Amino acid sequence: MKCLVTGGNVKVLGKAVHSLSRIGDELYLEPLEDGLSLRTVNSSRSAYACFLFAPLFFQQYQAAAPGQEALRCKILMKSFLAVFRSLATVERSVEKCCISLGGRSSRLVVQLHCKYGVRKTHNLSFQDCESLQAVFDPALCSNVLRAPARVLGEAVLPFPPALAEVTLGIGCGRRVILRSYQEEEEADSTVKAMVTEMSIGQEDFQQLQAQEGVAITFCLKEFRGLLSFAESANLSLSVYFDAPGRPAIFAVSDSLLDGHFVLATLSESDLHSPALCSPELRRLAPPLQAHSTPHLDDFANDDIDSYMIAMETTADSEGSRAVPSISLFPGLRPPCSPGPYSEDNEAEAGTQPGTPPPKKFRSLFFGSILAPAHSPPGPSPVLAEDSEGEG
């Protein structure tokens, strides 16, 4: 694999890496016929991100040498991030960036060609890996919001950096509401916590297809990462979501790249807290039925098992070239016995700063296995137990 990035696209690539670093600690790099794919998933399997850079994004792009199979690898995120650590320096001094994998080198080589003939070469160690893909389909989501990233970026600007989750909903007059989320124990405490709420008019959105009263709560840290990228590239941001507890899909796209962030959302029972009882947001969460009783398990009554996002791999080359798509898996339930990668999930159970507690967000991603050579082509979702060992 060899690709050459020139001009302002070097900064765009670096900005994408910075956005991915807010999600996971490992970067999956896979050259495809459709372009170069950069993917990551967080340790609790509650967030997945992918950027696909089309061949036209590069001045030169070769997925694999003639007659050879394209290689894919996994590297530490901090190693690749160090190449683009200072975006200001990259923009000011780097003229082109060459990324190569394979050949005689056993390293992923990233070479920066700077002004005055200076060359910086980074030789990064990597591991061979399976293809990391999430199965999703934004077209299946009933609610869609689309607005310039600048609009949403200005809306989240007042929220404190330490805020973990934010609630997005449709209020009265079809105004889009963004509000800081409080857990029930925080809302009931004697110490009053500051609550920040922003309201955006319908006229600021390029598309608003959602009913009044719907609301979802998700991680703000990952959302800010994609917003920052979309603002720098002057792109519009689309949000696709269903009921609370089902994953929300955040997407950016133009002729040269596609980006998808898939984030877990709080289950519906977690949204019925005093934090949502302001006049504007009271309608965002419909009242619980009289006969329903909240369960000790935050996810006992949610619908996330019917909207599983699964990591999958395939030995078929054509299947690996497809851009990740998302699909529903109605009625699937994790088995009680440990899955093939349950030990890895437990080993990675520690959440990253800014990632919500696992008790709030069910794990959306599951360990993947390499499909046997004789298996038919196409995705084959694999189920495993959650990162905290929940059944």
UniProtKB/TrEMBL annotation:
Keyword DNA damage: yes
Highest taxon of the lineage: Eukaryota
This protein's record includes keyword Ubl conjugation: no
Region Disordered, annotated ranges: 333-391
GO terms for biological process, alphabetical: cellular response to ionizing radiation; DNA repair; DNA replication checkpoint signaling; mitotic intra-S DNA damage checkpoint signaling
Main location as per UniProt: nucleus
Subcellular location: Nucleus
Keywords tagged on the record: DNA damage, Exonuclease, Hydrolase, Nuclease, Nucleus, Phosphoprotein
Name of this chain's protein: Cell cycle checkpoint control protein
Organism the protein comes from: Leptonychotes weddellii
